[in-house]
Amino acid sequence: MHVDIGNALASVASPGVSRESLERLDDQVADAHERIERGMANADHGYESLNLPQRTDPDEIRAAVEPVADAEALLTVGIGGSSLGAATIANALDSDTETVFLDNVDPEWVTAHLDRLPLENTAINVVSRSGTTAETLANFLIVREAFESAGVDWTERTIVTTGESGPLRDLATRHDLPSLKVPDGVPGRFSALSAVGLVAAAVCGHDLEALLEGAAAEAETLTGSLFECPAYAYGATTYALDQRGAGTNAVMPYAESLETSAEWFAQLWAESLGKDDLGQTPARALGVTDQHSQLQLYRAGPRDKLVTFVTPREGPDRPIPETDVEDLAYLGDATLGELLDAEFEATEASLAAARRPNVRVEIERVDEYELGGLLYGMEAACVLAGELYGVNTFEQPAVEWAKKATRGLLGGGEFEEAEAVAEKTELRVER
Amino acid sequence: MHVDIGNALASVASPGVSRESLERLDDQVADAHERIERGMANADHGYESLNLPQRTDPDEIRAAVEPVADAEALLTVGIGGSSLGAATIANALDSDTETVFLDNVDPEWVTAHLDRLPLENTAINVVSRSGTTAETLANFLIVREAFESAGVDWTERTIVTTGESGPLRDLATRHDLPSLKVPDGVPGRFSALSAVGLVAAAVCGHDLEALLEGAAAEAETLTGSLFECPAYAYGATTYALDQRGAGTNAVMPYAESLETSAEWFAQLWAESLGKDDLGQTPARALGVTDQHSQLQLYRAGPRDKLVTFVTPREGPDRPIPETDVEDLAYLGDATLGELLDAEFEATEASLAAARRPNVRVEIERVDEYELGGLLYGMEAACVLAGELYGVNTFEQPAVEWAKKATRGLLGGGEFEEAEAVAEKTELRVER
To answer: What Pfam families does the record tag this protein with (chains A, B) (predicted)?
Structure first.
């Protein structure tokens, strides 16, 4: 990926960061880079994620999915980091295989998917490191039953990705299912370039080697200076802007195919950096659509935002037909891609003209190689930002409380968290 | 809708608002309500939106869509307020008619939709108040051409919703197309309960009367006190929390069918209140999915957020099959709906336990009547908040700059904004 932080400079924007401050920050980047390199070399928890381009074996993943390689549809049962990386890749790239991600426990929605899918030609991809994630296991039990009711043998169509032990591992062994391992030392939100993210890509027939090569090329750029490494330029700039008041980071891809990448980024950023009362709040946006929704706020609301544009340099195009409506004749001289590009440049300039900081992240095009680079680059940016904040990037302790309360409420054990639910303070205003 | 602001009180959360402060704020609410009532009585620009339950004529809308009532699919061509209200209703409610919203100008994505849809059984719903919106007109020219290429007469399958005059109005007249009017005094983001939002609902066979009756029932609750009116309770509480530091409002429906409503809300809030360096930033979330993505940040990140839960009190359910995995046996005793409810209550309590403000907005179920109430209630909440902020709720001046720049870049006239694009400050870090 390429990064342009010109519109985040203090000469352009407020909040903004001066070149001098960036140069001072670069000393911290050099120190952080040493810690990151050491963590990678020691395969330390979390840092190991940045070794995935070397560690992941595409042949092993392809072998596991071989029994379902001809599936018409792939149903991935997973949530959070067990779903978002795979969905980002699957939704970005064209494939004849339909992909559905069962990442919620809404009964009506789950039923609608199961009623609609051609189960006899659908493969199941169940993903949970612990093998105990309540949402994933509940959905998997329902999916299995739906396959059985339809007379389809789910054991012939299921791939399991889980940890070394646990209920899902036991189940895979008992039914002799093809299975892959969630790599050690890699938190879910950093696992897109492991089996967790790549099983769906393999079933869809995407080029796993190109995904990993793109990521490896991005890894090559990790050096001790933000001025030489796009990932560090992005991570350091977002950190510096947050420190100066830009507590929100609105990520706005200018391509429908990259819409899910903004959701993936939002998890990466929120779960990694949102702790100790610190962390930038990711907001998911989409160009050009949100020019007619969020742009008013971004340009004229509080000065607490950075807008991150993510844009491919090239892509498919389509001419706009000519029109006899005089006022609109200019459209007929252009292509839809030119309109998209002009809207992007106009929006970027409109924020700069209002002195609102923004950063441009570019990839050459939306393909496996570039996507691998983007995913890896954003992960490295996040790891660097975590070093600069001084937080534990790779843990997510705040999600545990609600898990225990949920389990307690459903009778899965005694938890004091469940009792707190009953003590809710109410101030109700009813219709 | 029903609103519970108990978890936004200062006794529970920080930032939070004390009961005394709410009582003082209620005097401002009373004054604001008088201005709102006066604006409604005078049909003043913007305030007129709150009269839509009385003004909109369902028969007129049904008559306009009658020629395409049997369509298999409906392609709505519109962007921002010309799309989001219609999409919110269509995506919330079941229908045999497939609905697609062409609200972006990504060439690959537009082409994929046109290649996939059964054009001979697809109706077109083109919506633009001015009739000159570049994205909508460009897409409409492309859609027309695709229909012609497929040998389908688009003039027999197109419904136009636009202002009294302009290129789209002329086109509707020239081709004798069924057409409806974007009502005067109603900004796009407040137009869900007019023809703008209801044409798609009518083609899908939804109960327009129930939508409007639900909205009318919500209108009945507008009184001079936040303690008696759910909409004002919500608008006043979000305003008070923003003043006390909760600059972000994360809207988190606990129903897949309401996911689009969070996008609709985000436009309503951002474009109405984001001006004069004021306004709360909406963030779109989804329960339970985002418990595994955003919850860490909401519970342990900066104390600058309010979380708004939107939840139906009842809905379809589905049992979770029993399992022989001992550790997961508790799941098999529950339904998926009970798991969803437990996760919601646990998440709400987990935020309260960390003293993070949150508000619960409830509807009885996801149907036309309740949806009409929710849309109307949130609009009234937004109008009230605009009064409290003292901004011009019904304008969106900051989106004009980029429109002019886009037009200039495409050769549609001389605009100084287009020249500013070329002057971009760069600081590039390349791979």
So the answer is: PGI (PF00342)
Q: Determine which one of A271, A348, A370, A387 is catalytic.
A: A271
Contact A272, A257 (CB under 8 A): no
Task: With beta carbons less than 8 A apart as the criterion, state whether B192 and B264 touch.
Answer: yes
Tell me: do B110 and B233 sit in the same domain: no
How many angstroms separate the CA atoms of B249 and B254, rounded? Answer: 16
Give the chain B residue whose CA is nearest to the CA of A347. B402
Q: How far apart (Å, rounded) are the C-alpha atoms in residues B222 and B233? A: 10
A421 → closest Cβ in B108, B345, B431: B345
Residue in chain B lying closest to A131 (CA):
B328
Claim to verify: residue B223 and residue B345 sit in the same structural domain:
yes
CATH code: domain of residue B26: 3.40.50.10490
- Write the DSSP assignment of B187-253 as a string of letters: -GGG-TTSHHHHHHHHHTT--HHHHHHHHHHHHHT--S-TTT-HHHHHHHHHHHHHHTT--EEEEEE
Please report whether residue B425 resides in a domain. no
**Is B59 part of any domain?**
yes
Together in a domain, A171 and A253: no
Domain boundary among B209, B237, B268: B209
Q: A400-409 vs B336-353: helix axis angle to the nearest 10?
A: 130
What is the nearest CA distance from B40 to chain A, expressed in angstroms?
21
How large is the ipTM? 0.97
The amino acid at A75:
L
| A226 contacts on B by Cβ (under 8 Å) | 429
Nearest CA in chain B to A317: B107
pLDDT in tens, A313-324: 999 999 999 987
A-B CB pairs within 8 A amount to 479
Contact A177, A171 (CB under 8 A): yes
- Min distance A404 CA to chain B CA atoms (Å): 8
Is the same domain home to A227 and A370? Answer: yes
The answer to whether residue B298 is domain-embedded is yes
B101 to chain A: which residues are within 8 Å by CB? Answer: none
Tell if the CB–CB gap between B318 and A347 is shorter than 8 Å. Answer: no
Half-sphere exposure of B158 (CA within 13 A, CB side): 25
The first and second tokens of residue A379, run together, are 């992960």
Show the domain range for B273. Answer: 2-37+212-389
> In terms of Cα–Cα distance, which of A220, A202, A181 is closest to A67?
A202
Q: For A262-304, how does the pLDDT look when each residue is reduced to its tens digit (9 = 90+)?
A: 999 999 999 999 999 999 999 999 999 999 999 999 999 999 9
Instruction: Point out the catalytic residue in the list A2, A45, A403, A404.
Output: A403
| Rounded Cα gap, residues A105 and A136, in angstroms | 8
Give pLDDT tens digits for A359-375. 999 999 999 999 999 99
Shortest distance, CA B362 to any CA of chain A (angstroms)? 9
List the alpha helices (DSSP H) in A73-161: 84-92, 107-116, 134-149
Say if residues B178 and B123 touch (Cβ distance below 8 Å): no
Q: What is the CA radius of gyration of chain A?
A: 23
The C-alpha atoms of residue A136 and residue A133 are separated, in whole angstroms, by: 5
Query: Given this model, what pLDDT does residue A425 score?
Result: 95
Section A194-216 average pLDDT: 98
Residues written for chain A: 431
CA distance B51 to B57: 12
* Domains identified in chain A, total number: 3
Predicted confidence (pLDDT) at residue A325 exceeds the cutoff of 90: no
Can you point out the beta strands (E) in B210-277?
Answer: 248-253
Which residue in the block uniquely carries the two structure tokens 């839809």? A336
- pLDDT for res A327: 84
In the DSSP assignment, the letter for residue B312 is: E
Neighbours of B371 (CB within 10 A): 27
Distances (CA, A) of B204 to A395, B34, B70, B86: 46, 38, 9, 11
| Same domain as A114, residue A84 | yes
A100 assigned to some structural domain: yes
How far is the C-alpha of B124 from the C-alpha of B100, rounded, in Å? 10
Domain's final residue, options B209, B236, B258:
B209
